[in-house]
Design brief:
The chain has 301 residues and is α/β, with parallel strands linked by helices. It contains eight helices and 17 strands. The protein has two domains: 179 residues, FAD/NAD(P)-binding domain (3-Layer(bba) Sandwich); 112 residues, FAD/NAD(P)-binding domain (3-Layer(bba) Sandwich). It is elongated.
Length: 301
C-alpha cells in the first residue's frame, strides 16, 4: 500500500485551506469529508473576504474545484472511523466508512465542532431565523426586534452586549435563570426586556420563528434572534490519537498546528472546540499545512 504524505480529515475552510497548501507543495494527500460542515444549515456564509454572502455549499465546491488543479490531492467523501498508530507514530492506518484503508505519515485533524441546544426546538430555526454569531448574521438583522436566548449569565451578557451594536430592540430570555442584580441593572438601563421564565417551545413555520411560548402559556412574538449553544467535537479522533487537551477543552499545540503527538496536527475549530469565522479557520488550516510541509522537508532533506 502506498504511504501518503498527509491525510486531512475534514473539508471545511481549515481542511480545504490545508489541502491547497499541501497540494501546491506537491505532497501526496487525501482529504476526507462527510459534508457535515456546521454552516450547512444557513443560506449564506458571510465575512470571508471576496466571498461574502456565498452559499456554504458553493463555497465548499469552489474550494474543491481549486484542488482539482493539483494532481497529488485526492478527495474522499467518507467518514473516518478509526486511526491506528504504529510504533512512535511513524505511520497511521486510517479506516473509513467506504471500507477502505489508507496509510499516511502525517495527519491533520480539521473536523470542526457541532452545536448543542438546551431547547431542542431551536434546531428547527437555526440558520434561518435564529443565529449564534453576530459577526456572521448581525448585519442582516440590524434594527430588527430581536430575541436573545441564553441560560448562563456570562453568555447572556456577552451576546446581548454584542447584538446591541446591531439592534437596540432586544428581549432577553434566560429559560429559568435568575440574573444577578448587576446584570439586570445593566440591561434595564438600556431598556432591554428580561424574561426569566422557562421556555416551553418555539413556534414558527419552515425555519422562520413567529413566537416563543413559556411554560405558563404566555408567549412573546419575535421573528429573529440569537442563541448561545454549547459546542462539542463530533468524534473522538483527538482522544483516539492521544493529543493533550487543556482543561478548557482546547487541544494543546505549538501555535502552528503541531499537537503533543508526533506527526499529528490540528486546525480550525477542532483545535479550540469553540466557534470561529471561516477566515480564521482557513488561516489556521494554512498554518498547520505549512508545519506539515516544513517537517516533511526537514525529515527528508
Amino acid at each position: 500500500m502506498d504511504v501518503l504524505d498527509c491525510i486531512i480529515i475534514g473539508g471545511g475552510p481549515a481542511g480545504l485551506s490545508a489541502s491547497l497548501v499541501l497540494g501546491r507543495a506537491r505532497r501526496e494527500i487525501v482529504l476526507f469529508d462527510d459534508k457535515t460542515n456546521r454552516n450547512r444549515v444557513t443560506d449564506e456564509a458571510r465575512g470571508f473576504l471576496t466571498r461574502d454572502r456565498t452559499n456554504p455549499q458553493e463555497f465548499r465546491e469552489m474550494g474543491l474545484q481549486e484542488l482539482d488543479n493539483y494532481p497529488s490531492v485526492s478527495y474522499v467523501n467518507a467518514t473516518v472511523t478509526e486511526i491506528i498508530k504504529d510504533t512512535d507514530n511513524e505511520r497511521f492506518t486510517v479506516k473509513a466508512s467506504n471500507k477502505q484503508e489508507y496509510v499516511t505519515e502525517k495527519i491533520i485533524l480539521a473536523t470542526g465542532i457541532q452545536e448543542v441546544f438546551f431547547i431542542p426546538s431551536i434546531r428547527n430555526y437555526y440558520g434561518k431565523s435564529l443565529f449564534s454569531c453576530p459577526y456572521c448574521d448581525g448585519w442582516e438583522q440590524r434594527d430588527k426586534p430581536l430575541v436573545v436566548i441564553a441560560e448562563k449569565e456570562d453568555h447572556v451578557m456577552h451576546l446581548t452586549k454584542l447584538i446591541y451594536n446591531w439592534s437596540k430592540d432586544l428581549v432577553v430570555l434566560t429559560n429559568g435563570l435568575k440574573l444577578s442584580k448587576e446584570a439586570v441593572s445593566q440591561l434595564e438601563r438600556r431598556k432591554i426586556k428580561i424574561i426569566e421564565e422557562r421556555i416551553k417551545t418555539l413556534i414558527g413555520n419552515d425555519g422562520y420563528l413567529e413566537k416563543i411560548e413559556f411554560e405558563s402559556g404566555e408567549t412573546v412574538k419575535r421573528s429573529y434572534g440569537f442563541v448561545a449553544p454549547t459546542y462539542y467535537r463530533p468524534n473522538k479522533l483527538v482522544e483516539m490519537l492521544g493529543c493533550e487537551i487543556h482543561e478548557n477543552g482546547k487541544v494543546i499545540t505549538d501555535g502552528v498546528g503541531r499537537t503533543s503527538e508526533k506527526n499529528v496536527y490540528i486546525a480550525g475549530e477542532t483545535e479550540t472546540a469553540r466557534p470561529s469565522s471561516l477566515m480564521i479557520s482557513a488561516a489556521r488550516g494554512n498554518k498547520a499545512a505549512v508545519s506539515v510541509n516544513v517537517d516533511l522537508t526537514e525529515e527528508r532533506f
